[in-house]
Protein backbone atom coordinates (compact mmCIF):
# COMPACT_ATOMS: atom_id res chain seq x y z
CA UNK A 1 0.00 0.00 0.00
CA UNK A 2 1.39 3.42 -0.96
CA UNK A 3 1.98 5.89 1.86
CA UNK A 4 2.99 9.53 1.93
CA UNK A 5 6.28 10.66 3.42
CA UNK A 6 4.41 13.02 5.72
CA UNK A 7 2.08 10.44 7.23
CA UNK A 8 4.95 7.99 7.66
CA UNK A 9 7.03 10.55 9.60
CA UNK A 10 4.28 12.29 11.59
CA UNK A 11 4.45 12.83 15.32
CA UNK A 12 2.86 10.12 17.49
CA UNK A 13 -0.86 10.45 16.95
CA UNK A 14 -2.87 12.50 19.43
CA UNK A 15 -6.06 10.89 20.63
CA UNK A 16 -9.29 12.68 19.72
CA UNK A 17 -12.64 11.31 20.92
CA UNK A 18 -15.66 10.15 18.97
CA UNK A 19 -19.01 11.90 19.40
CA UNK A 20 -20.72 9.92 22.14
CA UNK A 21 -23.48 12.43 22.99
CA UNK A 22 -25.41 15.17 21.23
CA UNK A 23 -23.33 18.36 21.00
CA UNK A 24 -24.11 22.08 20.67
CA UNK A 25 -21.71 24.78 19.49
CA UNK A 26 -21.45 28.23 17.94
CA UNK A 27 -19.50 27.05 14.89
CA UNK A 28 -19.41 23.53 13.47
CA UNK A 29 -16.51 22.72 11.13
CA UNK A 30 -16.65 19.66 8.89
CA UNK A 31 -13.26 18.42 7.73
CA UNK A 32 -10.08 17.66 9.67
CA UNK A 33 -7.40 18.77 7.23
CA UNK A 34 -5.32 21.90 7.55
CA UNK A 35 -8.24 24.01 6.33
CA UNK A 36 -10.64 22.83 9.03
CA UNK A 37 -8.01 22.94 11.76
CA UNK A 38 -7.00 26.49 10.86
CA UNK A 39 -10.65 27.60 10.97
CA UNK A 40 -11.00 25.94 14.37
CA UNK A 41 -7.90 27.71 15.66
CA UNK A 42 -8.82 31.20 14.40
CA UNK A 43 -12.42 30.98 15.58
CA UNK A 44 -11.66 29.47 18.99
CA UNK A 45 -9.04 32.17 19.50
CA UNK A 46 -11.82 34.74 18.92
CA UNK A 47 -13.90 33.16 21.70
CA UNK A 48 -16.25 31.07 19.59
CA UNK A 49 -17.45 27.67 20.81
CA UNK A 50 -16.05 25.44 18.05
CA UNK A 51 -16.59 21.78 17.16
CA UNK A 52 -14.59 20.11 14.38
CA UNK A 53 -15.73 16.79 12.90
CA UNK A 54 -13.39 14.53 10.91
CA UNK A 55 -14.90 11.42 9.36
CA UNK A 56 -11.62 9.48 9.46
CA UNK A 57 -8.35 10.54 11.12
CA UNK A 58 -7.09 14.10 11.32
CA UNK A 59 -4.78 15.17 8.46
CA UNK A 60 -5.00 11.87 6.57
CA UNK A 61 -6.65 13.39 3.49
CA UNK A 62 -5.41 16.12 1.15
CA UNK A 63 -3.08 17.69 3.72
CA UNK A 64 -1.25 14.46 4.47
CA UNK A 65 -0.83 13.75 0.77
CA UNK A 66 0.37 17.17 -0.39
CA UNK A 67 3.80 18.29 -1.63
CA UNK A 68 4.51 20.37 1.48
CA UNK A 69 5.13 23.62 -0.44
CA UNK A 70 4.04 26.71 1.45
CA UNK A 71 4.37 29.62 -0.94
CA UNK A 72 2.46 32.37 -2.71
CA UNK A 73 4.05 31.32 -6.02
CA UNK A 74 1.27 29.13 -7.38
CA UNK A 75 2.68 28.10 -10.76
CA UNK A 76 1.77 30.50 -13.59
CA UNK A 77 -1.21 32.30 -12.08
CA UNK A 78 -0.68 36.05 -11.71
CA UNK A 79 -0.66 37.02 -15.40
CA UNK A 80 -3.92 35.13 -15.90
CA UNK A 81 -5.34 36.57 -12.69
CA UNK A 82 -4.59 40.14 -13.78
CA UNK A 83 -6.30 39.50 -17.10
CA UNK A 84 -9.36 38.07 -15.38
CA UNK A 85 -9.66 40.17 -12.21
CA UNK A 86 -7.27 43.12 -12.53
CA UNK A 87 -4.07 44.07 -10.75
CA UNK A 88 -5.63 44.92 -7.40
CA UNK A 89 -7.36 41.55 -7.04
CA UNK A 90 -4.21 39.70 -8.11
CA UNK A 91 -2.33 41.65 -5.45
CA UNK A 92 -4.94 40.66 -2.86
CA UNK A 93 -4.47 37.01 -3.78
CA UNK A 94 -0.71 37.29 -3.40
CA UNK A 95 -0.98 39.24 -0.13
CA UNK A 96 -3.31 36.80 1.64
CA UNK A 97 -1.17 33.83 0.62
CA UNK A 98 2.01 35.59 1.68
CA UNK A 99 0.35 36.40 5.01
CA UNK A 100 -0.46 32.70 5.33
CA UNK A 101 3.24 31.89 4.94
CA UNK A 102 4.07 34.46 7.63
CA UNK A 103 1.43 33.04 9.98
CA UNK A 104 2.79 29.51 9.58
CA UNK A 105 6.31 30.77 10.21
CA UNK A 106 5.12 32.51 13.40
CA UNK A 107 3.79 29.33 15.05
CA UNK A 108 5.81 26.49 13.50
CA UNK A 109 8.55 24.67 15.33
CA UNK A 110 11.94 23.99 13.78
CA UNK A 111 11.16 20.49 12.53
CA UNK A 112 7.93 21.66 10.88
CA UNK A 113 9.00 24.53 8.61
CA UNK A 114 12.09 25.54 6.66
CA UNK A 115 12.77 28.57 4.49
CA UNK A 116 12.93 27.79 0.76
CA UNK A 117 13.13 29.83 -2.41
CA UNK A 118 10.25 29.16 -4.82
CA UNK A 119 11.20 28.98 -8.49
CA UNK A 120 9.40 28.59 -11.79
CA UNK A 121 11.60 27.31 -14.60
CA UNK A 122 11.25 27.15 -18.37
CA UNK A 123 12.75 24.62 -20.76
CA UNK A 124 11.59 25.93 -24.15
CA UNK A 125 11.23 29.23 -25.98
CA UNK A 126 7.47 29.05 -25.54
CA UNK A 127 7.89 28.35 -21.83
CA UNK A 128 10.28 31.27 -21.47
CA UNK A 129 7.75 33.56 -23.14
CA UNK A 130 5.14 32.53 -20.58
CA UNK A 131 7.66 32.97 -17.78
CA UNK A 132 8.43 36.51 -18.92
CA UNK A 133 4.72 37.31 -19.04
CA UNK A 134 4.48 36.15 -15.42
CA UNK A 135 7.46 38.36 -14.56
CA UNK A 136 5.58 41.37 -15.94
CA UNK A 137 2.64 40.43 -13.71
CA UNK A 138 4.99 40.33 -10.72
CA UNK A 139 6.20 43.82 -11.61
CA UNK A 140 2.62 45.14 -11.88
CA UNK A 141 1.63 43.63 -8.53
CA UNK A 142 4.85 44.52 -6.74
CA UNK A 143 6.01 40.97 -6.01
CA UNK A 144 9.76 40.87 -5.25
CA UNK A 145 11.46 38.51 -7.69
CA UNK A 146 14.72 37.46 -9.27
CA UNK A 147 14.88 36.51 -12.94
CA UNK A 148 17.84 34.21 -13.43
CA UNK A 149 19.29 31.75 -15.91
CA UNK A 150 19.25 27.98 -15.69
CA UNK A 151 18.46 26.12 -12.48
CA UNK A 152 21.82 24.83 -11.31
CA UNK A 153 20.33 22.36 -8.83
CA UNK A 154 18.49 20.42 -11.53
CA UNK A 155 20.32 17.69 -13.49
CA UNK A 156 18.76 18.57 -16.84
CA UNK A 157 18.81 21.58 -19.12
CA UNK A 158 16.64 24.56 -18.21
CA UNK A 159 16.37 28.01 -19.80
CA UNK A 160 15.30 30.58 -17.20
CA UNK A 161 14.04 30.72 -13.62
CA UNK A 162 11.70 33.16 -11.88
CA UNK A 163 12.31 33.19 -8.12
CA UNK A 164 10.47 34.44 -5.07
CA UNK A 165 12.98 34.22 -2.25
CA UNK A 166 12.40 33.22 1.37
CA UNK A 167 9.13 31.37 1.00
CA UNK A 168 8.64 28.16 2.98
CA UNK A 169 8.11 24.44 2.90
CA UNK A 170 6.50 22.56 5.75
CA UNK A 171 5.99 19.08 7.06
CA UNK A 172 2.23 19.41 6.56
CA UNK A 173 1.20 16.70 9.03
CA UNK A 174 3.52 17.76 11.85
CA UNK A 175 2.51 21.38 11.30
CA UNK A 176 -1.16 20.40 11.25
CA UNK A 177 -0.73 18.39 14.43
CA UNK A 178 0.84 21.45 16.07
CA UNK A 179 -2.00 23.72 14.91
CA UNK A 180 -4.61 21.22 16.15
CA UNK A 181 -3.00 21.28 19.60
CA UNK A 182 -3.12 25.08 19.58
CA UNK A 183 -6.79 25.00 18.53
CA UNK A 184 -7.66 22.67 21.40
CA UNK A 185 -5.70 24.89 23.77
CA UNK A 186 -7.92 27.78 22.66
CA UNK A 187 -11.01 25.70 23.46
CA UNK A 188 -11.91 23.97 20.19
CA UNK A 189 -13.35 20.46 20.46
CA UNK A 190 -12.08 18.01 17.85
CA UNK A 191 -13.77 14.68 17.11
CA UNK A 192 -12.56 11.91 14.82
CA UNK A 193 -14.45 9.08 13.11
CA UNK A 194 -17.50 11.33 12.97
CA UNK A 195 -19.19 10.67 9.62
CA UNK A 196 -21.89 13.18 8.69
CA UNK A 197 -24.93 11.26 7.45
CA UNK A 198 -27.47 14.08 7.14
CA UNK A 199 -27.37 17.85 7.10
CA UNK A 200 -30.26 20.20 7.91
CA UNK A 201 -29.29 23.81 7.26
CA UNK A 202 -32.77 25.13 8.07
CA UNK A 203 -32.73 23.73 11.60
CA UNK A 204 -28.96 24.06 11.99
CA UNK A 205 -27.86 20.55 12.83
CA UNK A 206 -26.07 17.57 11.37
CA UNK A 207 -26.81 13.95 12.13
CA UNK A 208 -23.91 11.54 12.26
CA UNK A 209 -23.88 7.93 11.11
CA UNK A 210 -23.86 7.07 14.82
CA UNK A 211 -27.23 8.91 15.10
CA UNK A 212 -25.71 11.57 17.37
CA UNK A 213 -26.68 15.16 16.56
CA UNK A 214 -24.46 18.25 16.47
CA UNK A 215 -26.35 21.57 16.58
CA UNK A 216 -24.72 24.80 15.49
CA UNK A 217 -25.25 28.47 14.70
CA UNK A 218 -22.78 28.65 11.83
CA UNK A 219 -21.42 25.84 9.67
CA UNK A 220 -18.04 25.78 7.91
CA UNK A 221 -17.53 23.02 5.34
CA UNK A 222 -13.85 22.23 4.80
CA UNK A 223 -14.27 18.69 3.52
CA UNK A 224 -12.03 19.22 0.46
CA UNK A 225 -14.87 18.40 -1.90
CA UNK A 226 -18.12 19.61 -0.34
CA UNK A 227 -20.91 17.44 0.99
CA UNK A 228 -23.32 16.99 -1.87
CA UNK A 229 -26.52 17.12 0.16
CA UNK A 230 -26.35 20.87 0.79
CA UNK A 231 -28.70 22.93 -1.33
CA UNK A 232 -26.84 25.38 -3.55
CA UNK A 233 -23.55 23.49 -3.36
CA UNK A 234 -21.09 24.22 -6.17
CA UNK A 235 -21.28 20.66 -7.55
CA UNK A 236 -20.80 21.58 -11.19
CA UNK A 237 -18.27 24.32 -10.48
CA UNK A 238 -15.42 22.18 -9.19
CA UNK A 239 -13.20 19.98 -11.29
CA UNK A 240 -11.02 17.40 -9.55
CA UNK A 241 -7.48 16.44 -10.57
CA UNK A 242 -5.34 13.56 -9.27
CA UNK A 243 -1.55 13.86 -9.27
CA UNK A 244 1.27 11.56 -8.14
CA UNK A 245 4.30 12.08 -5.89
CA UNK A 246 7.40 10.01 -5.15
CA UNK A 247 10.14 10.53 -2.56
CA UNK A 248 13.67 9.10 -2.74
CA UNK A 249 16.45 9.32 -0.19
CA UNK A 250 19.14 11.85 -1.11
CA UNK A 251 22.45 13.09 0.21
CA UNK A 252 22.17 16.47 -1.56
CA UNK A 253 19.32 18.61 -0.21
CA UNK A 254 18.83 22.08 -1.68
CA UNK A 255 16.97 25.22 -0.63
CA UNK A 256 14.85 25.75 -3.76
CA UNK A 257 11.45 24.30 -4.70
CA UNK A 258 10.92 24.13 -8.44
CA UNK A 259 7.99 23.78 -10.79
CA UNK A 260 8.16 23.72 -14.58
CA UNK A 261 6.01 26.01 -16.68
CA UNK A 262 6.10 23.74 -19.73
CA UNK A 263 6.30 20.06 -20.54
CA UNK A 264 7.34 17.75 -19.06
CA UNK A 265 5.49 19.14 -16.06
CA UNK A 266 7.45 18.51 -12.86
CA UNK A 267 7.43 19.81 -9.30
CA UNK A 268 10.74 19.17 -7.52
CA UNK A 269 11.91 19.86 -3.98
CA UNK A 270 13.85 18.28 -1.15
CA UNK A 271 12.87 17.80 2.48
CA UNK A 272 14.96 16.92 5.51
CA UNK A 273 13.16 15.05 8.28
CA UNK A 274 14.96 13.84 11.41
CA UNK A 275 18.37 14.16 9.71
CA UNK A 276 17.30 12.19 6.62
CA UNK A 277 16.89 14.11 3.35
CA UNK A 278 14.48 13.20 0.56
CA UNK A 279 14.02 14.32 -3.03
CA UNK A 280 10.35 14.77 -3.94
CA UNK A 281 9.05 14.64 -7.50
CA UNK A 282 5.42 15.41 -8.30
CA UNK A 283 4.28 14.71 -11.86
CA UNK A 284 1.69 12.70 -13.79
CA UNK A 285 -1.91 13.91 -13.43
CA UNK A 286 -5.37 13.19 -14.81
CA UNK A 287 -9.03 13.92 -13.97
CA UNK A 288 -9.95 12.06 -10.80
CA UNK A 289 -11.42 8.62 -11.36
CA UNK A 290 -10.84 8.70 -15.12
CA UNK A 291 -8.18 5.98 -15.26
CA UNK A 292 -8.02 2.42 -14.02
CA UNK A 293 -4.36 1.55 -14.57
CA UNK A 294 -3.05 4.13 -12.12
CA UNK A 295 -0.04 2.00 -11.23
CA UNK A 296 1.38 3.10 -14.59
CA UNK A 297 1.63 6.64 -13.24
CA UNK A 298 3.53 5.44 -10.17
CA UNK A 299 5.84 3.39 -12.39
CA UNK A 300 6.51 6.32 -14.71
CA UNK A 301 7.15 8.64 -11.77
CA UNK A 302 9.55 6.15 -10.18
CA UNK A 303 11.43 5.76 -13.47
CA UNK A 304 11.68 9.55 -13.88
CA UNK A 305 13.07 10.11 -10.39
CA UNK A 306 15.60 7.32 -10.95
CA UNK A 307 16.79 8.11 -14.47
CA UNK A 308 16.24 11.86 -14.89
CA UNK A 309 17.01 12.95 -11.34
CA UNK A 310 19.47 10.16 -10.52
CA UNK A 311 17.87 8.97 -7.28
CA UNK A 312 17.16 5.21 -7.36
CA UNK A 313 16.22 4.80 -3.69
CA UNK A 314 12.47 5.54 -3.93
CA UNK A 315 10.96 4.90 -0.51
CA UNK A 316 7.53 6.58 -0.61
CA UNK A 317 4.85 6.99 -3.27
CA UNK A 318 1.46 8.61 -2.90
CA UNK A 319 -1.17 10.61 -4.76
CA UNK A 320 -3.24 13.71 -4.08
CA UNK A 321 -6.66 14.85 -5.24
CA UNK A 322 -7.33 18.54 -5.76
CA UNK A 323 -10.54 20.36 -6.74
CA UNK A 324 -10.38 23.67 -8.57
CA UNK A 325 -12.89 26.41 -9.27
CA UNK A 326 -13.38 27.66 -12.84
CA UNK A 327 -11.58 30.97 -12.28
CA UNK A 328 -8.31 30.24 -10.40
CA UNK A 329 -9.45 31.54 -6.98
CA UNK A 330 -10.74 29.24 -4.20
CA UNK A 331 -14.15 29.61 -2.63
CA UNK A 332 -14.05 30.96 0.94
CA UNK A 333 -17.12 32.52 2.50
CA UNK A 334 -20.88 32.18 2.82
CA UNK A 335 -22.04 29.75 0.18
CA UNK A 336 -24.93 31.94 -0.96
CA UNK A 337 -27.11 34.85 0.12
CA UNK A 338 -29.88 32.38 0.92
CA UNK A 339 -27.59 30.42 3.27
CA UNK A 340 -25.65 33.13 5.13
CA UNK A 341 -24.78 30.84 8.04
CA UNK A 342 -23.18 28.17 5.84
CA UNK A 343 -19.57 28.76 4.82
CA UNK A 344 -17.45 26.82 2.39
CA UNK A 345 -13.70 26.56 1.86
CA UNK A 346 -12.56 24.58 -1.19
CA UNK A 347 -11.08 24.72 -4.68
CA UNK A 348 -7.42 25.28 -3.81
CA UNK A 349 -6.10 24.18 -7.23
CA UNK A 350 -3.17 22.15 -5.84
CA UNK A 351 -2.06 25.02 -3.57
CA UNK A 352 -3.99 24.08 -0.46
CA UNK A 353 -1.36 24.70 2.19
CA UNK A 354 -1.21 28.48 1.86
CA UNK A 355 -4.75 28.83 0.50
CA UNK A 356 -6.28 26.83 3.35
CA UNK A 357 -4.71 29.18 5.90
CA UNK A 358 -5.70 32.24 3.88
CA UNK A 359 -9.27 31.02 3.43
CA UNK A 360 -9.58 30.19 7.13
CA UNK A 361 -8.74 33.77 8.02
CA UNK A 362 -11.26 35.10 5.49
CA UNK A 363 -14.02 32.88 6.88
CA UNK A 364 -13.21 33.48 10.54
CA UNK A 365 -13.19 37.25 9.91
CA UNK A 366 -16.63 36.98 8.31
CA UNK A 367 -18.05 34.98 11.22
CA UNK A 368 -16.75 37.35 13.90
CA UNK A 369 -17.78 40.42 11.86
CA UNK A 370 -14.32 41.68 10.99
CA UNK A 371 -13.54 43.23 7.61
CA UNK A 372 -11.25 41.34 5.23
CA UNK A 373 -10.15 42.96 1.98
CA UNK A 374 -10.04 39.63 0.14
CA UNK A 375 -13.54 38.46 1.07
CA UNK A 376 -15.15 39.62 -2.18
CA UNK A 377 -12.47 38.04 -4.36
CA UNK A 378 -12.82 34.65 -2.61
CA UNK A 379 -16.62 34.78 -2.22
CA UNK A 380 -18.41 31.65 -3.52
CA UNK A 381 -21.18 33.89 -4.85
CA UNK A 382 -18.77 35.77 -7.15
CA UNK A 383 -19.31 33.30 -10.00
CA UNK A 384 -22.41 33.36 -12.15
CA UNK A 385 -23.49 29.90 -13.18
CA UNK A 386 -24.81 31.06 -16.54
CA UNK A 387 -21.56 32.72 -17.56
CA UNK A 388 -19.71 29.55 -16.62
CA UNK A 389 -22.05 27.26 -18.52
CA UNK A 390 -19.36 25.95 -20.84
CA UNK A 391 -17.30 24.68 -17.90
CA UNK A 392 -20.41 23.39 -16.15
CA UNK A 393 -21.58 21.61 -19.29
CA UNK A 394 -18.17 20.00 -19.65
CA UNK A 395 -18.44 18.54 -16.18
CA UNK A 396 -22.12 17.70 -16.57
CA UNK A 397 -21.33 16.06 -19.89
CA UNK A 398 -18.72 13.90 -18.22
CA UNK A 399 -21.29 12.93 -15.61
CA UNK A 400 -23.89 11.98 -18.19
CA UNK A 401 -21.35 10.07 -20.27
CA UNK A 402 -19.99 8.15 -17.32
CA UNK A 403 -23.46 7.44 -15.99
CA UNK A 404 -24.77 6.05 -19.28
CA UNK A 405 -21.62 4.35 -20.47
CA UNK A 406 -20.82 3.05 -17.03
CA UNK A 407 -24.09 1.26 -16.52
CA UNK A 408 -23.90 -0.32 -19.94
CA UNK A 409 -20.23 -1.27 -20.14
CA UNK A 410 -19.00 -1.70 -16.57
CA UNK A 411 -21.69 -3.71 -14.86
CA UNK A 412 -19.09 -5.30 -12.59
CA UNK A 413 -18.19 -2.01 -10.88
CA UNK A 414 -20.13 -0.67 -7.90
CA UNK A 415 -22.27 2.43 -8.31
CA UNK A 416 -21.09 5.64 -6.64
CA UNK A 417 -23.53 6.65 -3.91
CA UNK A 418 -23.23 10.32 -4.83
CA UNK A 419 -24.92 10.62 -8.25
CA UNK A 420 -25.05 7.06 -9.57
CA UNK A 421 -21.95 6.90 -11.78
CA UNK A 422 -20.02 3.67 -12.12
CA UNK A 423 -16.77 3.67 -10.18
CA UNK A 424 -13.43 2.37 -11.46
CA UNK A 425 -11.03 0.18 -9.52
CA UNK A 426 -7.77 2.09 -8.93
CA UNK A 427 -5.09 -0.60 -8.89
CA UNK A 428 -2.30 1.72 -7.77
CA UNK A 429 -4.08 2.98 -4.65
CA UNK A 430 -6.44 0.02 -4.14
CA UNK A 431 -9.53 2.23 -4.15
CA UNK A 432 -12.80 2.57 -6.04
CA UNK A 433 -12.73 5.99 -7.78
CA UNK A 434 -15.67 7.85 -9.32
CA UNK A 435 -14.90 9.78 -12.53
CA UNK A 436 -17.87 12.13 -12.22
CA UNK A 437 -17.17 14.21 -9.13
CA UNK A 438 -14.12 12.57 -7.58
CA UNK A 439 -15.56 10.43 -4.79
CA UNK A 440 -13.20 7.68 -3.62
CA UNK A 441 -13.95 4.53 -1.65
CA UNK A 442 -11.72 2.02 0.14
CA UNK A 443 -11.59 -1.58 -1.01
CA UNK A 444 -14.30 -2.47 1.54
CA UNK A 445 -16.60 0.25 0.12
CA UNK A 446 -16.29 2.82 2.91
CA UNK A 447 -15.94 6.47 1.90
CA UNK A 448 -12.37 7.76 1.62
CA UNK A 449 -13.09 11.13 -0.03
CA UNK A 450 -16.37 12.88 -0.87
CA UNK A 451 -18.65 14.27 -2.09
CA UNK A 452 -20.25 10.87 -1.50
CA UNK A 453 -21.33 10.33 2.10
CA UNK A 454 -22.56 6.73 1.97
CA UNK A 455 -20.52 3.54 1.37
CA UNK A 456 -20.61 1.49 -1.79
CA UNK A 457 -22.88 -1.50 -2.08
CA UNK A 458 -20.39 -4.27 -2.85
CA UNK A 459 -22.92 -7.05 -2.55
From TrEMBL:
* Domain of life the protein comes from: Bacteria
* UniProt KW keywords: 2Fe-2S, Disulfide bond, Iron, Iron-sulfur, Metal-binding
Q: InterPro entries, from UniProt?
A: FAD-dep_OxRdtase, FAD/NAD-bd_sf, Rieske_2Fe-2S, Rieske_2Fe-2S_sf, Rieske_Fe-S_prot_C
Against Pfam families, the record matches this protein to:
DAO, Rieske
SUPFAM superfamilies, from UniProt?
Answer: ISP domain, Nucleotide-binding domain
Gene3D superfamilies hit by this protein: D-Amino Acid Oxidase, subunit A, domain 2, FAD/NAD(P)-binding domain, Rieske [2Fe-2S] iron-sulphur domain
Q: Provide the Rieske domain boundaries.
A: 413-459
Name of the protein described by the UniProt record:
Gamma-glutamylputrescine oxidoreductase
Protein species of origin: Sporosarcina ureae
Amino acid sequence: MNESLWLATAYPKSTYPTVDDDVTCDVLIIGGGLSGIANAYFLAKQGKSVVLLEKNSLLHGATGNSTGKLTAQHDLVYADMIEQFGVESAKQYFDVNEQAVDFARSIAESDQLQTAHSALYSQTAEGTERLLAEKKAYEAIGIPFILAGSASYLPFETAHTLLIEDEAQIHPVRFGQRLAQLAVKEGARIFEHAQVAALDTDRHFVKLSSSKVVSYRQLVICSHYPIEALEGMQILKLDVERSYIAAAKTETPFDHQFISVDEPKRSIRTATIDDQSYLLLCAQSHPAGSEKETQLHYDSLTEDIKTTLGHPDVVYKWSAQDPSTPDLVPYAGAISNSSPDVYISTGYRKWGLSNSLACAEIISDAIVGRSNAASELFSPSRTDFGSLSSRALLLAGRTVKEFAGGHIARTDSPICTHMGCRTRWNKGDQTWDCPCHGSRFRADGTVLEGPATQPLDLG
